[in-house]
Amino acid sequence: MDNEAAPNLPLPDAFIHFLNENGLDPSIYTMSDLTPRYVRLKPGCEAYLEEIEAEIECKLGKVAWLPNFYSLPPHIQIANSKAYQEGKIYGIDAASGAAVLALNISLGDHVLDLCAAPGAKLCMILDLLGSSGSVTGVDVARHRLAACRTMLQKYSLGDHCRLFVADGTTFSLFPIRVHSDSKSCECGLEGKLDVYKEWTSRRPWKERKREAKARASVASQLASRIHDPELIFYGRNSGVVGLSKSELYQTLHCSEVLHCGYDKVLVDAECTHDGSIKHIQKFEQWGWKTLQHRVLNAERTDDLTVLQLQLLTNGFRLLKVGGSLVYSTCSLTVAQNEDVVEQFLSKNASAELLEIDAAEIWPCKSGRVPNTLRFDPMTSQTSDIGLCTKDTPGNSNAWSITTK
Ligand SMILES: C[S@@+](CC[C@H](N)C(=O)[O-])C[C@H]1O[C@@H](n2cnc3c(N)ncnc32)[C@H](O)[C@@H]1O
After folding, report:
1. Does residue 275 lie in a domain region?
2. Which of 103, 139, 311, 384 gets mutated to test ligand 1 (max ligand atoms within 8 A of its CB)?
3. Residue 386, by phi and psi: left (phi above 0), alpha (psi -120 to 50) or beta?
4. From ligand 1's centre to the CA of 269, what distance in Å?
5. Which residue lies with its CA nearest to atom 24 of ligand 1?
């Protein structure tokens, strides 16, 4: 495909070539005016629907295939609305919702979100779990994870959650249930403060400042990324309260992982974001040269696919037997989606790619690998994302992949 085939597009030749290589129609990047935006209604806020519609002056269209999701015209802004500021609605694309739904969360599940920030999917997982189970959110970017913490507080969702600044390719901590026979998550806070105050963000301000200074050197930052997860948030019922530092940072042997790992893992991997139409449109202002560097640069993409495979591999390692994993990206490229999954499967005989039952009614396409799925503006009326789920031996779960 060349520029002549898409005369109205302001996209540079190199990007058109990139789309062509991935079998993508450039007109998906001109559809943003037609693609709706989406909100998710916080469970329990159904009674406010009419009030919200009156405030934002538009009707919310129920998304039939995605519980609690509503579409609205793309020009409607929600950020300044009272409904958004009071935590009654979330701004999240429908394709992101599909990625979470693909996890098939059950009450009581212990879920790991390995690339969690800024946290739109993490919040949805917590809403689905209600007051059961636990969620462990991990992200390498401290400032992004801090935004995630703010979101948990805004939506009052943190009770069963803990957040770690850590490298998802090496993160090794398991759900707190491994301690549950000896420690109750419900135990009182009194008398336990001395156990956890030494290593959480509740430490004195001076102490935290000193540590922040120490982290300022690139070398120590890298070292802490690789070796030392840092807990920056935990809820009262996250299982953390009452543990000593060594108990919290205990890692398990391979044989224990099989039964003590997470029930569900989401690997919403770092990617080139080329599937995000709004992201690509920003390059009109940032300059197409930046696009060349950030999206099309083969070396960067190679590095990213290595990272994606490592994240996927580590997420799978932390999954218990019979658990399932979803791998997703907001890139539309084959290299960052199907290729990563195929490479992973070729090295992990115990993993299997299964069909996502719920997807029967989803407006998406099959990816190049059977049981993977792709969302795009034309097929799905959504913006961007990609995902897949995987399984361990001895159970009926599986992998599925989707991109939006
Ligand atoms: C696509 S975003 C995740 C979006 C998030 N799941 C949500 O729904 O809001 C990818 C995230 O991966 C994080 N990331 C990049 N490299 C990582 C690594 N090695 N370990 C953990 N997180 C990483 C980035 O900081 C970024 O926040």
Report:
1. no
2. 139
3. beta
4. 6
5. 270
Q: Which helix (H) or strand (E) holds 197?
A: none
358 CB neighbour count, 10 Å cutoff: 14
Is there a contact between 74 and 35 (Cβ–Cβ < 8 Å)? Answer: yes
The confidence score (pLDDT) of residue 64 equals 95
What CA–CA distance (Å, rounded) separates 129 from 137?
A: 14
Tell me if 63 CB under 6 Å of ligand 1. no
Question: What is the Cα 111 distance to its own chain's centre?
Answer: 12
Assess whether the C-beta atom of 95 lies below 6 angstroms from ligand 1.
no
- Amino acid at the residue 290: T
**Whether 74 and 140 share a structural domain:** no
**Residue 56 CB burial class (10 angstroms; 0-12, 13-18, ≥19):** buried
Mean pLDDT of 105-114: 97
Reported as a single tens digit per residue, the pLDDT across 241-297 is 888 888 888 877 767 777 789 999 999 999 988 877 777 777 777 777 787 777 777
DSSP state of 60: P
> Nearest Cα to 284, choosing from 1, 2, 7, 11?
11
| Tokens coding 156 | 């009052």
* 198 shares its domain with 163: yes
- pTM for the model stands at 0.84
Q: What range does the domain containing 126 cover?
A: 116-167+175-250
User: Domain check: are 28 and 59 in the same one?
Assistant: yes
Alpha carbon nearest to ligand 1 atom 6, residue: 116
Cβ(163) to ligand 1 under 6 A? no
Residue range 244-257, pLDDT digits in tens: 888 888 877 767 77
Closest alpha carbon to 98 in 308, 391, 381: 381
How far apart, in Å, do the first and last CA atoms of the chain sit?
22
Residue with tokens 């993977």: 372
- 384 CB near ligand 1 (under 6 Å): no
Atom of ligand 1 nearest to the CA of 119: 9
- Helix (H) or strand (E) segment spanning residue 76: none
Domain count of the fold of the chain: 2
